[in-house]
Every structure is written in C-alpha cells, then in structure tokens.
C-alpha cells in the first residue's frame, strides 16, 4: 500500500486519495487497531470514511469469537475520525491562496452572495463542499475559477475570481 501510494502521488501531483475502513471487526486487537491508525497517519488519505462493524445475523462474522464491545468500537471510531479531521484540516489549510475550478451545485441564497460548489476532489454528497463568496448570479452547473481564502475541517471557502 505504501509503495503504491508513493508511486501514485509522484505520478499524479493533484491526486485525491480516499479510503473506507471498518473498525471493531471480530478479533480486532488494540495492537492491530494501533497499526492501522499509524498507517492512516503515514499515508494521510485526503478523504476517509469509517464505520463500526455491526453484527449481521447469518454471516460468518456474526459467529466469530472476539466480538469487540460497542464501547470499544465507538472509542476506536472516534480516534480514527479525530485523526482524519486533523489531516483534512491540514490538507485544506495547504490549499489556502491557491486557485481551483469549482462546479457550482447550489446558487447563491437570499443573501445573493454565497453559493455551494465542489472541486474535482470533493465527491457530491460525500465530501465537504466549497463555499463560494461573490457568486451572485451564478447558476448551478456552471464552472468557475476561485481562490481558496479559508480552510475548515471538511470544507473550503473561496472567492470567485473568474466566471
């Protein structure tokens, strides 16, 4: 995984990598969880989805020994998400001052100023959004150039610089 990620990032400078993980699968030890956390810290995925393992009757995993208590699963999920929030904020902060192309998804509201859009690295209804300032009169489906002016954990704030 490490080698493949290095190769991809070297080959594609603006690459956005995402992954999804499950925490608390039967038999997952604290040591294994810590290894996974260290790998996530090292690789620093741009986007990460994390879910709790849940027992599904009739599946082999439901009958496995080593079912992880709900409290442990919840604590592990929170640790993963805390790590990812810090990674996401750091990556977003690195974008401040840069220019991006944004697809407008929602026109400016009643204030006539802020619209909602997404960059190539923001999947619709999955990732954060780019809040566009100075977007009055821009219709959904329009691409605009924008300069990132603020970074949030999941979202970016940008000023429209070219319509």
Order of helices and strands: HEHEHEEEEE
- Overall average pLDDT: 95
Instruction: Report the helical percentage.
Output: 25-40%
Tell me the β content: 25-35%
Runs in which pLDDT lies below 50 for 5 or more consecutive residues are none
Q: Distance between the terminal alpha carbons, to the nearest Å?
A: 40 Å
Strand order of the largest sheet: 3-4-5-7-6
Number of strands: 7
Distinct helical segment count: 3
Overall geometry: elongated
Largest sheet: 5 strands, mixed, barrel
Tell me what you see in this structure.
The protein is α/β, with parallel strands linked by helices and 163 residues long. It contains three helices and seven strands; from the N terminus they run αβαβαβββββ. The protein has helices at residues 2-11, 30-43, 70-93, and strands spanning 18-23, 47-52, 99-106, 115-118, 130-133, 143-151, 156-162. A hairpin with an 8-residue loop joins β3 (99-106) and β4.
Task: Jot down its keywords.
163 residues; alpha/beta; five-stranded mixed beta barrel; two-stranded parallel sheet; 3 helices; 7 strands; 27% strand; elongated
Any chance you could write out the topology, listing elements then pairs?
Elements: H1 2-11, E1 18-23, H2 30-43, E2 47-52, H3 70-93, E3 99-106, E4 115-118, E5 130-133, E6 143-151, E7 156-162
Parallel strand pairs: 1-2, 5-7
Antiparallel strand pairs: 3-4, 3-6, 4-5, 6-7
Helix pairs in contact: 2-3
Describe the structure in brief.
This protein is about 30% helix and about 25% strand.
């Amino acid at each position: 995984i490490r080698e493949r990620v290095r190769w991809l990032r070297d080959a594609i400078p603006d690459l956005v990598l995402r992954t999804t993980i499950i925490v608390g699968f039967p038999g997952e030890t604290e040591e294994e969880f810590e290894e996974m956390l260290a790998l996530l810290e090292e690789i620093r995925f741009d986007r990460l989805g994390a879910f709790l393992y849940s027992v599904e009757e009739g599946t082999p995993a439901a009958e496995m020994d080593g079912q992880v208590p709900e409290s442990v699963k919840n604590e592990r999920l929170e640790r993963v998400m805390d790590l990812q929030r810090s990674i996401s904020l750091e990556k977003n902060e690195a974008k401040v001052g840069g220019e991006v192309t944004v697809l407008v998804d929602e026109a400016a509201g009643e204030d006539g100023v802020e619209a909602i859009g997404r960059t190539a690295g923001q999947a619709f209804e999955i990732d954060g959004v780019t809040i566009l300032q100075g977007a009055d009169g821009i219709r959904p489906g329009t691409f605009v150039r924008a300069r990132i002016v603020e970074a949030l954990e999941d979202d970016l704030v940008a000023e429209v610089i070219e319509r």
